[in-house]
């Protein structure tokens, strides 16, 4: 009896821990990612600001069109897709309800353009923190992406801007 119980507990602990590990390393969509995310980041803002934006380069890895319909994150009450438009030298943001992404197409979410507006911050965020964003696609498909909180100037730099002042002089 004692041995049977011990075996039972061993089995339980074995399966529980293995399923827990499985849950940790597998996203809800399964094994195949729908999109590839590069340079994903969230703009760092002063603590008194509870609103910011998320940017990324998103590639449709599938052979079908994907329709991005929204996003959510535990770090903010709401995440909305916006497009910044310029009219008469004024910038304003227009909500984007759906974004159709063709097979293999790369879409850029970037400052002064398409972005995710993150509204009503739920927790303090500092440079270097990670924000988990769940992308929601039509057909109940989701993908979780990790975005790093960064200062804006850092992320908008082109590789050339990292060169030393000397190289500017020699490049005239
Ligand atoms: Cu916006």
From TrEMBL:
<protein>
    <recommendedName>
        <fullName>Copper chaperone PCu(A)C</fullName>
    </recommendedName>
</protein>
<dbReference type="InterPro" id="IPR058248">
    <property type="entry name" value="Lxx211020-like"/>
</dbReference>
<dbReference type="InterPro" id="IPR007410">
    <property type="entry name" value="LpqE-like"/>
</dbReference>
<feature type="region of interest" description="Disordered">
    <location>
        <begin position="150"/>
        <end position="172"/>
    </location>
</feature>
<dbReference type="Pfam" id="PF04314">
    <property type="entry name" value="PCuAC"/>
</dbReference>
<keyword id="KW-0732">Signal</keyword>
<dbReference type="InterPro" id="IPR036182">
    <property type="entry name" value="PCuAC_sf"/>
</dbReference>
<feature type="signal peptide">
    <location>
        <begin position="1"/>
        <end position="23"/>
    </location>
</feature>
